[in-house]
Input
Amino acid sequence: MGDYLMRGDAPLTEGEWAQVDGIVVDVARKLLVGRRVLDLAGPFGAGLEVIPVGTGAGRAQIPLTVIEEDFALNWREVEASRQMGVPLELGTAAKAAMACAKAEDLLILDGLAAAAGNSVAVGDWSEPGVPLSDVVKATEKLFAADCFGPYAVVLSPDLYAATQRVSRGMGRMVSKLMAGVAEGGLYRSALLGAGTGLVLALGAYNFDLVVGQDLITAYQGNEGLDHGFRVLETVALRVKRPAAICKLG
Output
């Protein structure tokens, strides 16, 4: 662990650090959507500031974004945990992990939407057949651009809800019908605006998430008697083929 994290200076035992790390990683893993559809490159270390993308005259350097959120552990709760043998109260750590996960997904989803090389207008998803038809149209555009499957679909909550109904006349859940097209998975994200979504041709050759420092907790020192910490990571979305992204909506 790098000295810049100052973990050795924290008044926590190895077991207590394991509890902190466990809750941070567990909360982030449950919330993150972008990492379910992107290949990861790295982690390369916190010192990595930029990453190249493209070739020849189009080659560029993309900066890695620092995502961070602070939290504190109350000294009395730490002492109570030790004296009574109960787990640490880590609600503040979980909240910080949630904030970092949200920021990472926002960076990824906004970046994918902004870079999308294709788009499909969304019809009325309350009508039978429309959700599947719109997604198929998107995959056809991706296929025509030589961006082959597996395809993943990420939807706003309202569009996702429309896939959780039984399709009239088909007798099956819309999501089940869509699974044959979205072999890479069907996901929901509250960070997408109403009536929008993304259909993605998966593969590291299309886009990936570059990780410098993966999600970790650093010690910041005392805040009075309490103990200050920071959850942090450094990441960059690298879009190599915009044609592999189709925006719905």
